[in-house]
Amino acid sequence: MIFLVVLIFSLLQATFLPLNLVLWLVILWSARRPEEKSLYLAVGAGLILDLAKGGILGFSSLLFLVTRYLLILYSRRFNSLHPAFLIAFMLMATFVYAFFIK
Q1: To the nearest 10°, the Cα dihedral for 44, 10, 97, 28?
Q2: What are phi and psi of 40, to 5 degrees?
Q3: Secondary structure of 30-96 in HEC code, one letter for each residue
Q4: Quick one: which of 78, 80, 87, 77 has its CA closest to 38?
Q5: Which of 52, 64, 80, 94 could disulfide-link to 75, CB 3.0 to 4.6 Å?
Q6: How many CB atoms neighbour CB 50 within 10 A?
């Protein structure tokens, strides 16, 4: 079910939405479930997004995995479900992602 949402968000992001919906989905999923499923989601979502955008295959997966790792690393020290932390982390991840993609 989550990969259907990833597919829809990837198509929306690749066609006309300037928002980074797939990255936000990976961050929210990793904050709620920091287990093996979020690892698979990060890899799968990155591959689907790269296929939808026509970019380098696996590059978004690498960025999503690094983002997931940093979120889990910071969640040991901070409350990763706190809205202020999530918003700040999403903004930082969006800027870093935009820097590497463009």
Answers
A1: -70
A2: -65, -35
A3: HHHCCCHHHHHHHHHHHHHHHHHHCCCCCHHHHHHHHHHHHHHHHHCCCCCCCHHHHHHHHHHHHHH
A4: 80
A5: 80
A6: 18
Cα(first)–Cα(last) distance of the chain, in Å?
A: 30
Q: What is the pLDDT of residue 7?
A: 93
One digit per residue, pLDDT tens: the chain, 102 residues? Answer: 888 999 999 999 999 888 899 999 999 999 988 778 889 999 999 999 999 998 899 999 999 999 999 998 988 888 888 999 999 999 999 999 999 987
Token representation of residue 26: 């990976």
Task: Give the C-alpha separation, 57 to 46, whole Å.
Answer: 8
Helix pair angle (36-53, 21-32), 10° resolution: 170
Structure tokens at 17: 């939405």
Domain ranges of the chain: 25-101
